[in-house]
Each structure stands twice: as structure tokens, then as C-alpha cells.
Amino acid sequence: MEELELPYALETYERDPVTMRGGSALTSHSPFGKAPAIVDGDLELSESGAIIAHILDRYAGGRLQPEPGTDAWSRHAMLMHMAEATAMPALTVDLIETMGAEVPQAIRWIPGPTGAEVLDQLAALLDHRAYVLGDDLTAADIQMWFVMRAASARQDFRSYPTLGTYLDRLEARPAFAAAVARGGPVEMHAA
């Protein structure tokens, strides 16, 4: 919303400190009590990728995405979904292990690649590029920010200087600063 300079109202919800669930107020907008969630008229949506796709479709006027029907648009869609479907599950498995918990073998197959393999691929993708599709920010970069922020908690993140520079570039954008000023800093806790 900040990148598109669109007006919006922000509501925050306190999470239960034990379960980390959003509570009944958030559940009224999101079936599983997950954030983010949006209410746009009568439409209520959760899941980051769906929210971003909705905003792009209704309000972006072609901004923050390649032209539909092109190969670049298809790669953009792939990267949008890769953030949640491949990258975050792999990084979450790694995070669980760094917390000292054992990840059952039956769970390991779900993400496919390891967190390191995900970061290797993203570093290769960003080699000689400012953003995941080239010189211009797209919604895929906005979606990938959370992946980078989660990855930055890894002890080996500094061995991926391209990714560190990418994260810094995303967080240096005026729209990012405006979002943080409005919503507060993003805090990630391992336990």
C-alpha cells in the first residue's frame, strides 16, 4: 500500500503470548487467525500472496508487476508463490533445528530444498540484479522481504552478501520506512 501510495487503515491485534494466535478479533477477518488480513469492502482475505494479488489487480494499475501474459509476469507469479510455498517452509525447518528441536523425518520432505539451498538460489537470482526481476521493484520483492528478514536471523546469513545487500535495499526504500513508521518495527522471535 505504501509503495502504491494508496490510503489504508491499519488495525493491529495482540497475539496470545503462549500460542502466538491472533485471537477472536483477527479470526473474524482471517479463518485461521493469521496476519496479514485485509478487509476491502465486503471482501475479507488472508494470506500474503492473495492479498498482494488482489491489491495489484484492483488498485495497482499495472504498477509493481510485469505486463500480464508475458514470461516476466509468469516468473513474477512463481516468485510470489515461492516465498511462502518453498522458501519459508525450508527456513522454518532450519529455524526449528537451531532452536534445538528435532524435526521429524516425515516433516523434512515438505519444504523440498534446505534453507541453504533456497538462499543459494536466491543469491544466484540476485547476482547482478537490484531486485528479483531486474532493476525495478515488483510485488515479488515485497513478498520476498519477509523471507530475507527471516533468513537474516541465520548464523550463516553474512555468507550471502548479495542477500544482505538486497535486504538493506528493500528496507532503505521510503515506502518501507513509511510502513514501519505507521505500523511499528517488525520483530521476529525464535522462541
UniProtKB/TrEMBL annotation:
- InterPro entries per the UniProt record, alphabetical: Glutathione-S-Trfase_C-like (IPR010987), Glutathione-S-Trfase_C_sf (IPR036282), Glutathione_S-Trfase (IPR040079), Glutathione_S-Trfase_N (IPR004045), GST_C (IPR004046), Thioredoxin-like_sf (IPR036249)
**Residue span, GST C-terminal domain:** 45-191
Q: Which residues form the GST N-terminal domain?
A: 1-63
Which organism is this entry from? Sphingomonas rubra
Q: Name the domain of life.
A: Bacteria
Please provide, alphabetically and separated by semicolons, the GO molecular function terms listed in this UniProt record.
transferase activity
Q: Which residues form the signal peptide?
A: none
Q: Can you say what this protein is called? A: Glutathione S-transferase
Which keywords accompany this UniProt record? Transferase
- A Pfam family annotated for this UniProt entry: GST_C_3
